[in-house]
């Protein structure tokens, strides 16, 4: 990254603040809370690292694919970059959005960063230079969620309060597809093959959109409140959903999965209260119209589908070849706030304001009932498009932030809460697992970020 650039819109600029304003210190000046305890399990400087510097609520935070960087953003409209190892220094930030940044995602190769904002745009950033490559316009109101395809051409999908999921191709100008939902879309993701998009929103359903047929393929129901997050499992067979009904659900999203796709429900947390873009070109390349606001989007593993979620509680899977709603996944009973594909691309994780995470089987021939797991225990607040969920790299654990200020980690086999991590004084809006080490990050409305190692 070039840190010698002048401060300008869309540029990476060096941070001039004193270290003590960026990284809180205790015994050391590295922001570490040093405590006696079990043997170390990661290469963090200390078991828990505290990152400070944001001037407003932090809505999102992600590790880079190589695990060397951590990026965060939120209400202050700035995108911060931190080193994961050493003193976790805040070495640079990006300027350019005129509204709060609601979600950020790295490209698979780590060369680009994608951000969704309340300024109605999706931005594409070059990580090395800090330059904003594209400012993608097309949504009519807040963009809640953005998700890149795991493989293939650099496709993006986004979900908005305007009730659409839009898909964009990095090789072409303009939006290439739009899927219309009835209510706001709060979470989207692609399935593992990128042939479908799964969406969730305030109608509590998960909708699966077939990108070849441009149709709503099927829906997964079960959540009783807004779906706030979706994430595909590492291998791509299952989908994790988080909802404001205070549960996480795991859904079988394989093509021939049983009709009842919800395989697990996890609880214990609390909630608070679609467009596609080409990263190399200007303009929306596809728009998928939803009936309600879209709050989460993601590509499937092959980038042939976009999965969206919103305030209608469904996950919609959009077929990019057919420009149609392929199928929908229902189960959430409130707004979908987050979507994330599993590492191998077979499963999708969704988070909802019904206070559950669900894992869905999004493989092409999964049974009709794609929800394979439901996890609950956390709580949402009334921030419908926050509080997302995450898979561990090996798929054995899932995590979600909570309105009760805790980070919850579940074992996907037993469905039990294995960690309930305290420390934040505000709602935990996003969590993320390190790609190679047992490290989890949490980003909160208390303006703080924690990096902590797990056993």
From TrEMBL:
PROSITE patterns: WD_REPEATS_1, WD_REPEATS_2, WD_REPEATS_REGION. GO terms for biological process: mRNA processing; RNA splicing. Keywords: mRNA processing, mRNA splicing, Repeat, Ribonucleoprotein, WD repeat. GO terms for molecular function: RNA binding. WD repeats lie at residues 51-84, 94-135, 136-178, 185-219, 220-254, 294-328, 329-363, 390-420, 421-455. InterPro entries: U5_snRNP_Component (IPR052234), WD40/YVTN_repeat-like_dom_sf (IPR015943), WD40_PAC1 (IPR020472), WD40_repeat_CS (IPR019775), WD40_repeat_dom_sf (IPR036322), WD40_rpt (IPR001680). SMART domains: WD40 (SM00320). It holds the Pfam family WD40. One of its GO terms (cellular component) is catalytic step 2 spliceosome. PANTHER family: U5 SMALL NUCLEAR RIBONUCLEOPROTEIN 40 KDA PROTEIN. This is U5 small nuclear ribonucleoprotein 40 kDa protein. It comes from Plakobranchus ocellatus.
């Amino acid at each position: 990254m070039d840190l010698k650039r002048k401060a300008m819109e869309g540029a990476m600029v060096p941070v001039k603040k004193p270290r003590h304003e960026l990284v809180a210190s205790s015994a050391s000046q590295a922001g570490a809370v040093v405590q006696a305890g079990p043997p170390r399990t990661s290469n963090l400087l200390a078991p828990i690292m505290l990152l400070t510097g944001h001037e407003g609520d932090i809505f999102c935070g992600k590790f880079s694919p190589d695990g060397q960087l951590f990026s965060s953003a939120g209400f202050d409209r700035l995108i911060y970059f931190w080193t994961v190892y050493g003193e976790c220094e805040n070495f640079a930030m990006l300027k350019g959005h005129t509204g709060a940044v609601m979600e950020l995602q790295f490209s698979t190769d780590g060369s680009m960063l994608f951000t969704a904002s309340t300024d109605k745009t999706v931005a594409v950033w070059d990580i090395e230079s800090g330059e904003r490559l594209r400012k993608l316009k097309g949504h009519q109101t807040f963009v809640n969620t953005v998700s890149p395809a795991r493989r293939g051409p650099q496709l993006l999908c986004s979900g908005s309060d305007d009730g659409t999921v839009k898909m964009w191709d990095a090789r072409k100008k303009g939006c290439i597809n739009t899927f219309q939902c009835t209510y706001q879309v709060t979470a989207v993701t692609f399935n593992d093959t990128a042939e479908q998009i799964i969406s969730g929103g305030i109608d509590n359903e998960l909708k699966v959109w077939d990108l070849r047929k441009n149709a709503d393929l099927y829906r997964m129901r079960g959540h009783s409140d807004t779906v706030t997050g979706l994430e595909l499992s590492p291998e791509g067979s299952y989908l994790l959903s988080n909802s404001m009904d205070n549960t996480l659900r795991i859904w079988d999203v394989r093509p021939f999965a049983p009709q009842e796709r919800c395989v697990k429900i996890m609880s214990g947390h609390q909630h608070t209260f679609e467009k596609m873009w080409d990263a190399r070109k200007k303009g929306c390349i596809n728009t998928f119209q939803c009936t309600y606001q879209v709050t989460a989007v993601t590509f499937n593993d092959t980038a042939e589908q976009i999965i969206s979620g919103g305030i209608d509680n469904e996950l919609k899977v959009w077929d990019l070849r057919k420009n149609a709603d392929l199928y929908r996944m229902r189960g959430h009973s409130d707004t979908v706030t987050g979507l994330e594909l599993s590492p191998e691309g077979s499963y999708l994780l969704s988070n909802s304001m019904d206070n559950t995470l669900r894992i869905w089987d999004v493989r092409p021939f999964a049974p009709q009932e794609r929800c394979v797991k439901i996890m609950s225990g956390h709580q949402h607040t009334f921030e419908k498009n926050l509080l997302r969920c995450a898979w561990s790299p090996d798929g054995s654990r899932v995590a979600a932030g909570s309105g009760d200020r805790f980070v919850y980690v579940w074992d996907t086999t037993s469905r039990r809460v294995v960690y309930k991590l305290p420390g934040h004084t505000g709602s935990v809006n996003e969590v993320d697992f390190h790609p190679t080490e047992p490290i989890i990050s949490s980003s909160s409305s208390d303006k703080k970020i924690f990096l902590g190692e797990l056993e």
